[in-house]
Amino acid sequence: AQSVTQLGSHVSVSEGALVLLRCNYSSSVPPYLFWYVQYPNQGLQLLLKYTSAATLVKGINGFEAEFKKSETSFHLTKPSAHMSDAAEYFCAVVHLGGGTSYGKLTFGQGTILTVHP
Amino acid sequence: NAGVTQTPKFQVLKTGQSMTLQCAQDMNHEYMSWYRQDPGMGLRLIHYSVGAGITDQGEVPNGYNVSRSTTEDFPLRLLSAAPSQTSVYFCASSRSPANSPLHFGNGTRLTVT
After folding, report:
1. Nearest-CA distance from A62 to chain B in Å?
2. pLDDT tens digits for A56-86?
3. Phi, psi of B73 (to 5 degrees)
4. Three-state secondary-structure class, residue B86
5. Is A32–B99 a contact, with Cβ atoms under 8 angstroms apart?
6. Are the beta carbons of A97 and B31 closer than 8 angstroms?
7. Interface probe with A: pick from B37, B56, B60, B95, most Cβ of A within 10 Å
8. CA of A52: how far to CAs of A27, A87, A89, in Å?
9. Do B45 and A104 touch (CB under 8 A)?
10. How many CA atoms lie within 13 A of B64 on its CB side?
C-alpha cells in the first residue's frame, strides 16, 4: 500500500527566506503526487501535481516541487517566503495499482508553515 | 460557480444522536469523497463514490453511512454519534480519481459531547 511521510509537523521561516517542506512516499508502482494547501477555516486547495511528465513541477504562488524517484521524495520549495504563505501544507499520493484501491488518495500528516516578519 | 458546498458549517451533537452532513457539487464530477481531519493525522478517507449509485468504504468507515442517488449530492450520515467522531469533515469531488485534483468544500466542524 502507498504511504506518505511529511518530515516536520511545524516549519518556521523568516519572510524572504527559502521554504522547504519535505515529503517522502512509498508506492509499489510509479505514483501520482500532489501538494495541497489549507488556509485557516478553509478546505484544501491544489498547489501542484506530478503525473509522470516533467520531474520539476511548478505550481501556484511561486511554489515548485521536484520528483526524485531515487530518493522517493517530492519536496516542496519556494525561494522567498511571504507572510501570506502561512498555512498548513499536505502532500498526497494516488494509488495507481490494481484492485479497489485504484485512485484513492493518501495524505501525509501535514506541515504547518509559520512565516515571521 | 459554487464548486463544492457543505452544510452545516458547525454542529454540536450529544452522544447517540444521528445527523446528516450535506455535500453538493455543481461541476458534474463523477468522483466524490468524504474525509475527516484530525490534528497530526492528515486527512483520512471515510467513504467515496465513483458515480451515482456506487459507493465504497475508505480507511475509516465505521459509524458512517453514505448514498449517492444523484451525481450532485453525496450526504454523509452519522448513525449514532460518539465523542470519537468529533472532527472536521471535508467533502471533495473530482473528474476522475487518479490524476484530476480534488475540489474541497469548506468543511463541517462537528463536536460530539
Report:
1. 19
2. 999 999 999 999 989 999 999 999 999 999 9
3. -115, 145
4. coil
5. yes
6. no
7. B37
8. 14, 27, 22
9. yes
10. 26
Which residue has cell 522517493? A72
DSSP for A46-96, please give it.
EEEEE-SS-SEEE-GGG-EEEEEGGGTEEEEEESS--GGG-EEEEEEEE--
pLDDT at position A98, please?
64
Query: Would you state the cell numbers that stand for residue A32, as one nine-digit string?
Result: 501520482
SS3 A31: coil
Are the beta carbons of A37 and A87 closer than 8 angstroms? yes
Which residue, among A40, A42, A90, has the nearest Cα to A63 in the 3D structure?
A90
Instruction: Kindly state the greatest CA–CA separation across chain B.
Output: 39
Most distant pair of Cα atoms in chain A: their distance: 49
- Are residues A85 and A36 in contact, defined by beta-carbon separation less than 8 angstroms? no
Which grid coordinates belong to B97?
480519481
Average pLDDT of every residue of chain B: 94
Give CA–CA dist A97/A117, Å, rounded: 45
Measure the CA–CA gap between B86 and A28, rounded to whole angstroms. 34
Mean pLDDT for chain A overall: 90
Residue B9 vs residues A40, B34, B43, B104: alpha-carbon distances, Å: 14, 15, 18, 14
